[in-house]
Amino acid sequence: MPRPRKPANRHKLERKQGRSLYREERDYKRDIAGESSGERQPARQTLSQMEAVKRLLDGIGVPEPQPFKPDDFQIEALKAIETEDVLVTAPTGSGKTWIAREEIRRILAKGERAWYTTPLKALTNSKYAEFSLEFGAAKVGILTGDRKENTEAPLIVGTTEIFRNQLFDALRQSEQVRTDFVIIDEAHYLADEDRGHVWEETIILTPPRIRMLLLSATVGKAEEFAKWIEDVRGTKVRVINRAGTRPVELRAAYLSKQLQLYPLLNESGEFNRDLEQFAKEKRRDFRRRR
Questions:
Q1: Three-state DSSP class for residue 35
Q2: Straight-line distance from the first to the last Cα atom of the chain, in angstroms, rounded to the nearest whole number
Q3: How many structural domains compose the chain?
Q4: What is the CATH number of the domain that holds 213?
Q5: Which pLDDT score is estimated for 15?
Q6: Going along 204-272, which residue ranges are E strands?
Q7: By CB distance 3.0 to 4.6 Å, which of 190, 258, 274, 282 could disulfide with 199?
Q8: pTM value?
Q9: How far apart are CA 138 and CA 149, in angstroms?
Q10: What is the Cα–Cα distance from 117 to 222, expressed in whole angstroms?
Q11: Whether 213 contacts 74, CB under 8 Å
Q12: Is residue 114 classed as helix, strand or coil in its secondary structure?
């Protein structure tokens, strides 16, 4: 039986593959030597780049201790929460948590109970540690999907889903949820496509006797949001809007494999072109892995 003929272009294909492997090996050796397609990668940052990093890091550190003085919006929120529900919208770092902490202090002093809800386990753990230091570990408990400690404490920190579940359980058993005050952190999660119904159900099911403090840095149309809360809860909602820029400035940078820092933006607020070299490196690495 005659043997099948090999494809006529087999040797051409092998030569092409060989050249491709040779190029990859050559590029890899150049990368190791700090070269790429005839362009030498900088071994260290230029003077202008170092000046940019200096500007990026300027002012970062621990400020000098100063006497604390609450802002007007914080004082207004504390006064309003005595008799009304309150929605506070303020940039991150403005001091929204201070409002919650001071009201919790008053709640505990009166022998009442409070709940602090967050959307994330990591944030819940962080607030639990913070409040334990502030009020004492014996007065603070935590409830998440995988953590359950000191559940009889007068202050419970937990995920919003857990508090929602307690509301459902109390409704089914014709009981009262054991809290007098609830803080809903990151209240803008109501608009989340997948989890927003949890915040909606939480607000609807929370009895009017439980005063509610909602905190958010990014909630949109706060007045409309407050009006909806008033309609479903039958309570009065005060909107405290601390407009303006962030008290704590955000600065973005890229850390290279060589542990060199590059600002994301230049002095003009435009994309820093020095970062393009790393995009090229990423493309070369991707081609080698294919």
A1: strand
A2: 40
A3: 1
A4: 3.40.50.300
A5: 57
A6: 211-216, 237-241, 253-255, 261-263
A7: 190
A8: 0.72
A9: 10
A10: 19
A11: no
A12: strand
